[in-house]
């Protein structure tokens, strides 16, 4: 079991950004060749994470997908979940992309949480108000995280974090009660 999140930091969050490979997925990439359309790529997403994103949205939080890689599979999943902000393979990098998302809303980096796992997440995690990591994150990412989960990426890690965040904000029980 992980330690609870700091309530003050949790309540300041307005936007939750999620890395994709290694967080929303287990990091595996399935690629192949389709003679009709060229190469193709598939990703496996966990339904528990989808519900977690919906719960965060019901709590009024904006969700963002931040990835260093372009992927039509990620765009499809973002569309299914009505994710408001998506940045895939932005040449300026994840931090600049996130800053743009926040600036459009008049928000600061202190009002963002980021769930990451690899070195490409470090610049974001060192600047957001609530940096968090999945259990399989590299040591450098775990070292700068305010919270590290116990569930691997692609297996419900986003759900674990969402629950911890919503519990710290005092919103979990109310959201769960809607399903009873």
Series of H and E elements: HEHEEHEHEHEHEHEHH
Count of alpha/pi helices:
9
How large, in whole angstroms, is the Cα Rg?
16 Å
- Please report the distance between the alpha carbons of the first and last residues: 25 Å
Spatial sequence of strands, sheet with the most strands: 5-4-1-6-7-8
| Structural class computed from helices and strand pairing | alpha/beta
Overview of the molecule:
The chain has 180 residues and is α/β, with parallel strands linked by helices. The chain is 40% helix and 20% strand. It has a six-stranded parallel sheet, with helices on both faces. The protein has a two-stranded antiparallel ribbon with strand order 2-3. Strand 6, helix 6 and strand 7 form a beta-alpha-beta unit. Helix 3 packs parallel to helix 8. It is globular and about 50 Å long.
Q: Which structural traits does this protein have?
A:
180 residues, alpha/beta, two-stranded antiparallel sheet, 9 helices, 40% helix
Condensed summary:
The protein is of the alpha/beta class and 180 residues long.
Topology:
Elements: H1 7-12, E1 15-19, H2 20-24, E2 30-34, E3 38-42, H3 47-58, E4 62-67, H4 72-80, E5 85-88, H5 94-105, E6 112-116, H6 122-125, E7 130-133, H7 139-144, E8 147-148, H8 157-168, H9 172-177
Parallel strand pairs: 1-4, 1-6, 4-5, 6-7, 7-8
Antiparallel strand pairs: 2-3
Helix pairs in contact: 3-8
């Amino acid at each position: 079991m992980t330690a609870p999140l700091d309530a003050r930091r949790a309540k300041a969050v307005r936007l939750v950004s999620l890395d994709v490979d290694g967080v929303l997925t287990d990091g595996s990439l399935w690629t192949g060749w389709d003679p009709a359309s060229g190469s193709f790529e598939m990703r496996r997403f966990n339904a528990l994470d989808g519900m977690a994103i919906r719960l965060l949205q019901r709590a009024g939080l904006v969700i963002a997908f931040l990835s260093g890689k372009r992927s039509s599979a990620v765009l499809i999943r973002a569309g299914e979940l009505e994710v408001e902000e998506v940045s895939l393979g932005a040449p300026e990098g994840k931090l600049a992309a996130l800053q743009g998302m926040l600036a459009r809303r008049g928000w600061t980096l202190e009002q963002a949480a980021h769930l990451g796992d690899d070195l490409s997440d470090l610049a974001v995690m060192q600047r957001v108000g609530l940096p968090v990591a999945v259990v399989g994150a590299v040591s450098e990412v775990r070292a700068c995280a305010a919270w590290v989960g116990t569930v691997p990426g692609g297996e419900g890690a986003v759900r674990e974090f969402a629950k911890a965040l919503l519990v710290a904000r005092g919103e979990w029980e109310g959201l769960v009660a809607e399903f009873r």
